[in-house]
Amino acid sequence: MATTIGVVVFPGTNCEHDAVAAVEQLGASARLVFHAEDKLGDLDGLILPGGFAHGDYLRPGAIARFSPIMDAVSAFAAQGGPVVGICNGFQVLCEAHLLPGALQKNRGLTFLCQPSRLKVTSTNSALTNAATLGEELTIPINHFSGSYTCDVDTLRELQNEDRIVLRYVENPNGSLDDIAAISNEQGNVVGLMPHPERAVSALLGSADGVVLMESLLRAASVSRV
Q1: Which CATH superfamily is domain 4-224 in?
Q2: Where in the sequence numbering do the catalytic residues fall?
Q3: pTM exceeds cut of 0.70
Q4: Number of neighbours of residue 170 by Cβ within 10 angstroms
Q5: Is pLDDT of 162 > 80?
Q6: What is the pLDDT of residues 172-194, one digit of tens each?
Q7: Distance CA 141, CA 139 (A)
Q8: Residue 223: which of 26, 39, 30, 42 has the closest Cα?
Q9: Where do runs of H (alpha helix) occur along the chain?
């Protein structure tokens, strides 16, 4: 049976079909999960994709965290299921306290849409288990509130517990400690601002996102067993 990844859709999500296409390109199945649902069904992994959930009112992800589906997402994560939040999905995971810290407006208050160079700084996560430590990847970013921030104690925990999984080689947004992606303590919940689902073919400018999507599918396959 093929691995099945759920892609959560909030009002204002706009990257769900990119995520579905990337998952299916790599041989897995994908199913859209609407935010008003309260059960996930038989899924092996989850993606919270990019967009502007609920119009990013109040602040990005602040309303989405109260959607009915988030209780099921939290339960799935607590059971060890792999969950990856991409861009707006990262913001939602932080607002839902599934990941620490917050995403604030970019340095210079500028919307960024460009390729970004990343370094793999941990392979102990659902996003990077198929990557090589120190490997450099070119993945596009597309955000206005993508500058990661947290308090000093949280940053120390992330550093000491090997939970910073990707860093920017050239920091585009002012993110603390060049952070592009972090994980929870178990490594099964990961948030990142860059869009690996948009970098799965050289025709798109880069295929460097494949290793990250493959990592999620590997983690989902292990979770299913």
Answers
A1: Class I glutamine amidotransferase (GATase) domain (3.40.50.880)
A2: 87, 195, 197
A3: yes
A4: 8
A5: yes
A6: 999 999 999 999 999 999 999 99
A7: 7
A8: 42
A9: 16-25, 69-78, 88-95, 152-160, 210-224
